[in-house]
Every structure is written in C-alpha cells, then in structure tokens.
C-alpha cells in the first residue's frame, strides 16, 4: 500500500500590533497566575463573587496578605472588584484565548475538603440572612419591592418571552402574580421558595384566583434535582440578588430543564444604591449582563432573547432568556 500523506498543520505567523505591550502584559498575566494560592483563588472565583473578609475565612489568611494576592490578580486583569456597601467583592474576569484555556483546565480541579467546607458555611450564612429578612418583612414585601421595581414594570415583559408547554417552574414567586400567567400556559406549575412565609402568600393569591394546577414546594433550587429534565420553562423574577450563590442557581436549574427548554431571568443590573441591602434584603447590588451570561454558559445554557429597561428611580432591569441545547 502507498504511504499515507500526512498533512502538517499550517503554522500561523506571530503578528505584531505595533504597541509593544503584548509580551509584557502576557508576562504579567503568567506571573500573576504562577502562584499556587492565587490559582486556588481563581478556581474558587469561577462560580461566585466573594468579599475580602469571606476570602480571608476560606483561605485562613490575614487581610493584608490576601489583599496583596488580590491586587496582583487585579493588576493582571484576572479578577475584577466591585464595592457593595462597606465590602469589596471580587470575581474572575478575562476573556483571552490564553485565559480561557487556563480557566478551563483550572476548573476541572476540585477544591480541598477544608476549602469546600468553608465555602458551604458562607453560602449557608448568606441563605440564613435571606431567610431572616423574608421571615421578618414578609408582610411588607410589596412595599419593599416597589421601592425598586414593582411587578407591573417587569412582569408583562417577561410574559412576552414566555413559551408554553406541559410543565413550568417559578423560583421565588413572591406574592404569586406571575403564577397566574404560568397557570394559563402550562398544564402543571411548581412554585418553589426558600421562605415558607412568602410561599404562603403566593398560595393565598393562587387560591383567590382559582389556580388549581400549581404545586407549592418549600426549599431551594437543590430540590429540583429530584425532577431532572422536567420543566419546559423556568422563571426567576427578581430573585438572584437575594440568593447567596447565584451561579449555583444556574447549575441547579439547568438540570431541571428539558432539552430546548428556556430559563427566564428578570434581574437588576449592577447599581450602587446600598440602601437596598437593609430596606429590601438584597445580598447583591445587581449584576452585570455579562456575569449572568457567564454563569449560564458555565452551566451549559446559551443566550437567547433579552430586554433591557431603565427605571426612573435609577435602577435598570435586564430580562434574559437562556436556552438549554
């Protein structure tokens, strides 16, 4: 038999942009990432944002030592920071092919047991703070909600993107208004809420409206693992900024979606109005659109349709659709 011709891949020449800054920047990036502790920090920040104090607890470091490592990572463009009240929160950034490859390999590594336990404790503390707020202020929910954005502002826009099908899930139904929309379009609906007080309010609304095809479940999104690939549509209206681990919400809900199913998220965009923490129980001061896209992509979802609107009180709302392939 004749020898098979093996075609070698074509070598692409290195191009010069003329700025002379590429190699120093690359060296700074590699130097910043070339430290075991900083790699651990980048691995941790793949799924969530953490404050400096939370990171000190997770890594058992004094604040000056940790702040030094964060400064190095920030100067290399590997993390970004945002102020939420008196705290600085850090998240992972960077979109170059080199960083994408680095992060892809890094994210395959597991956190140590000690790190994972610390992360779990912080997540539970955040969840408990949210539970306490809604237990104490559930009767004032509508008043607090309207300080930022009433249901009438975002509800109809979410409905315009909503599909129909056999089963829908709403996470954090609030006082239940959107359940009426879901009840008309789907054969069965599940309302899931971590707060029993809020769930009772939603159920009272459903009873008043005669919505008979809704099941009410008290729990967080981990409960959806009992029914994998069961929902045609999942709706999360103004909930993520109350949750301790927004990235995990995407992971959990991706598993609950059918192939081709949609996840609809109505959420605040990033803002600096810190009073919303105490007045409305917000754990996060909104999110940048690319942050939601990143969490969705990591969870195996792709971007769909989107609507953005600004409110007179200075807040901006994003309504996003994510689709499970």
The biggest beta sheet reads: 7 strands, mixed
Order of helices and strands: HHEHHEEHHHHEHEHEEHEHHEE
The total count of strands amounts to: 10
Dominant shape: globular
The strands making up the biggest β-sheet line up spatially as: 6-5-4-7-8-10-9
Q: Rounded to an integer, what's the Rg over CA atoms?
A: 22 Å
Strand content: 15-25%
Q: Can you give the helix content as a percent range?
A: 40-55%
Whole-number average pLDDT? 86
Low-confidence stretches: 1-18
Secondary-structure-based class equals: alpha/beta
* CA-CA gap between termini: 44 Å
Compute the number of helices. Answer: 13
Describe this structure in words.
There is one protein chain. The protein is of the alpha/beta class and 325 residues long. Helix content is 44%, strand content 22%. It contains 13 helices and 10 strands. The chain has helices at 22-33, 36-44, 52-59, 63-75, 97-106, 113-137, 141-145, 151-161, 177-185, 196-209, 246-256, 275-280, 289-298; strands spanning 50-51, 79-84, 87-92, 165-171, 186-193, 214-218, 231-237, 257-268, 302-310, 316-323. It has a 7-stranded mixed beta sheet with strand order 6-5-4-7-8-10-9, sandwiched between helices. α1 (22-33) runs antiparallel to α4 and α11 (246-256) crosses α13 (289-298). The protein is globular, with a radius of gyration of 22 Å. The two termini are 44 Å apart.
């Amino acid at each position: 038999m004749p020898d098979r011709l093996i075609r070698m891949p074509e070598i692409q020449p290195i191009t010069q942009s003329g700025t002379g800054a590429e190699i120093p920047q690359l060296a700074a990036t590699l130097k910043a990432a070339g430290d075991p502790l900083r790699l651990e920090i980048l691995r941790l920040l793949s799924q969530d944002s953490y404050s400096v104090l939370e990171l000190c607890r997770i890594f058992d470091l004094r604040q000056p030592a940790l702040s030094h490592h964060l400064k190095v990572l920030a100067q290399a463009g590997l993390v970004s920071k945002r102020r939420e009240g008196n705290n600085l929160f850090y998240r992972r950034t960077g979109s170059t092919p080199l960083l994408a490859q680095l992060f892809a390999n890094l994210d395959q590594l597991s956190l140590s047991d000690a790190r994972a336990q610390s992360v779990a404790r912080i997540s539970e503390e955040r969840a408990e703070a949210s539970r306490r707020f809604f237990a104490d202020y559930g009767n004032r929910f509508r008043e607090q909600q309207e300080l930022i954005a009433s249901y009438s502002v975002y509800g109809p826009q979410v409905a315009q993107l909503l599909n129909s099908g056999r089963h829908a899930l709403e996470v954090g139904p609030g006082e239940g208004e959107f359940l009426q929309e879901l009840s008309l379009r789907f054969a069965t609906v599940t309302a899931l809420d971590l707060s029993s007080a809020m769930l009772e309010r939603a159920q009272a609304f459903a009873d008043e409206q005669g919505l008979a095809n809704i099941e009410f479940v008290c729990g967080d999104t981990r409960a959806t693992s009992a029914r994998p690939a069961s929902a045609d549509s999942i709706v999360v209206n103004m909930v993520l900024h109350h949750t301790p681990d927004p990235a995990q919400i995407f992971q959990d809900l991706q598993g609950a979606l059918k192939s081709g199913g949609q996840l609809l998220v109505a959420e605040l965009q990033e803002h600096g109005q810190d009073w919303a923490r105490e007045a409305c129980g917000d754990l996060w001061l909104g999110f940048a659109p690319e942050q939601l896209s990143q969490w969705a992509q990591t969870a195996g979802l792709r971007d769909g349709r989107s609507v953005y609107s600004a409110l007179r009180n200075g807040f901006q709302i994003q309504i996003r659709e994510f689709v499970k392939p």
